[in-house]
Amino acid sequence: MAVKFLSDDTKKWQRHDLKTSLMIWSGWLAGLVLFVLCWQIISEATTWFFVFDAPRIAEDIFTRAMPPRWEYINELWEPLWDTFNIATIGTGIAILFGVPMAFLTANNTTPSRYIIRPICMVFIVASRSINSLIWALLTVAILGPGVLAGVVAISLRSIGFFAKLIYEAIEEIDTTPVEAIRATGASPLQVMAYAVWPQVKAIFVGVAVFRWDVNIRHSTVLGLVGAGGIGLQLSSSLNTLAWPQVSLIILAILLTVIFSEAISARIRAHIMNK
Amino acid sequence: MTDTVQLKRWRRPPMIKRTWLRALVWVGVPLYVVLSLGSMEVNWARVIDGLPRAKEFILSFSSPDFTTRWNDIYEGIYESLVMAFASTVVGILISVPIGLGAAKNLAPTPVYLVCRGIIALSRALQEIIVAILMVAIFGFGPFAGFLTLAFATIGFFAKLLAERIEDVSKSQSEAIRATGASWSQWVLYGIHPQVFPRFIGLSMYRLDINFRESAVLGIVGAGGIGATLNTAFDRYEFDTAAAIILIIIALVLMAEYTSSWLRVKVQ
To answer: Transmembrane segments in this chain: where (chain B) (predicted)?
Structure first.
């Protein structure tokens, strides 16, 4: 909050004083310059002829893709089942590893603050920084193409997600119940089960359902790199330019995503209302 | 009267209160696991073949190879960063009016519905699928990636911004209104100061997400580091892949620290 003195000695209210204003404006200017530079780089790497031609091509693809080849749906049930499994089993495995890791990482439950916690932190950061599609590139190279590679890729990406959100929840718990349970002579494991876990349970369910929904989205495209699911059909239809099949597959993916989001939203709303 | 005391053991209250639902979960989940694992075709010979490769990959993190493909790595990372920044800026510029329109307390119902529709569409279409279509329409290169990320930013940013706007404190915004402020003054002085810290936080978070996403768009030809990474894995050049992954992790960490620093500053 600042005041500016005008030439006729009246005061005028201003939101920021001069120094803050200057800093804010130079921040915006720097951002603008950076954006213009970025734009030039993108522009240089672009064939503008294709861009100007885009409406025609878009229309062309659209007319080729419509109507979708409905009878192809019979070949999609199995990949859809695989996609669902990759996401669900992948989430399950991630929970099995991620929850214990959260307890090992959280400041107030970790067995060793100087050895185990940093190791877990490194793993969490690595797991979260890398997209599941990149994890899939790796698992396909190691395990060979197929559903298993997809499951492992999804769980590798999700472990860090679970561990991070749950360890943060554990660090924020109320310590009164923990001390009360400990005062009864409970072992550390009993303390975790009866004092810590009940406090993070609701967050855990919310996070798990949310991640499952995200994983359904991700598992629909893992097939593009060979990791199973409906993405395989998408990739082969794209390679053979079978646009009516592509449109049907995208429609199927859209419906799956909307379905999973609806389920996840319902369960989360239910937990919140409790 | 008998004086036998019934000893009851205390049990934790069950997570799912309805008995039938609990039973369904207890029966359904193992059944599903058996069914899904049964339908999974796994080539165990191939898996065992691959195990030495897994070891090689993990070991390659101790000797990442930055030099052999440095030019490809440098160009890819550079392009990813450029795409991420440009798309975040444009995405946010488009998101702000849509976010204002998608806030129930600001916009009339028809505008609200249109804006919510745009958000839903952007959220339902996955980045990679949008990228495939963009590449088909606009050709290979970072422009397709830029458009994809900008489009994806709208669904994320406008939705969260709208939710924040719907949560603003009424007393402040009404005080501004009571001074006779116009709609734009009301938004600028009554809403904007309350929303701005969240705005900065979200922008930084989205920049971070866009960078991470830009790392995969290259797999479908939409520019960025993904193409190099894909090639490295295809040729089993794990030390190069490890180098790229380390760079990505370092940049993501940097973004996270910068964003938490900036958020503290703004508040």
So the answer is: 20-40, 81-101, 214-232, 238-257
